[in-house]
UniProtKB/TrEMBL annotation:
Protein species of origin: Herbaspirillum chlorophenolicum
GO-annotated molecular function: 8-oxo-7,8-dihydrodeoxyguanosine triphosphate pyrophosphatase activity
Catalytic activity: 8-oxo-dGTP + H2O = 8-oxo-dGMP + diphosphate + H(+); 8-oxo-GTP + H2O = 8-oxo-GMP + diphosphate + H(+)
Family in the record: Belongs to the Nudix hydrolase family.
Keyword Transmembrane part of the UniProt annotation: no
Keywords: DNA damage, DNA repair, DNA replication, Hydrolase, Magnesium, Metal-binding, Mutator protein
EC number: 3.6.1.55
Annotated protein name in UniProt: 8-oxo-dGTP diphosphatase
Length: 140
């Protein structure tokens, strides 16, 4: 019998440019799922609000100051190494240009073309297209 594990709260940020492009980062070597692409973010510390965690993580990982964030959705996902509760925020306003402060690759994506995507990220891409473009599947 496995005992119920309380999910780890994780703040996840989707930086969205005016044209709808979003920032994805690649998980660095030494972390579970190294090489997989995801939206940046990190664990919420005790006593920290989710948005404060998001701001802290973006400053630590990318050197930018997130100025606003709109709560978008929450997703729970059980990985072999962790049970996480992901809290997604969409931010259209930040100060500074993203830099790779932890050695991770990152890329602005319109139509998401990087692979592999972290499993919890995959279903969100289609939902995100509804936010970015108004309708899923705007291919001609």
């Amino acid at each position: 019998m496995s005992e119920a594990v309380k999910p780890i709260d994780v703040a996840v940020g989707i930086l969205m440019q005016p044209n709808g492009d979003v920032l994805l980062g690649q998980r660095p070597e030494g972390k579970p799922y190294a090489g997989y692409w995801e939206f940046p973010g990190g664990k919420v510390e005790p006593g920290e609000t989710i948005f404060a965690a998001l701001q802290r993580e973006f400053k630590e990982e990318l050197g930018i100051e997130v100025l606003d964030g709109e709560g978008w959705c929450g997703v729970e996902h059980v990985y072999p190494h962790a049970h996480v509760r992901l809290h997604f925020y969409i931010s259209r306003s930040w100060r500074g240009e993203p830099q790779s402060l932890e050695g991770q690759a990152f890329a602005w994506q319109g139509s998401v073309g990087v692979e592999p995507l972290l499993p919890a990220t995959v279903p969100l891409i289609e939902w995100l297209d509804l936010v970015r473009y108004g309708e899923a599947g705007q291919s001609s």
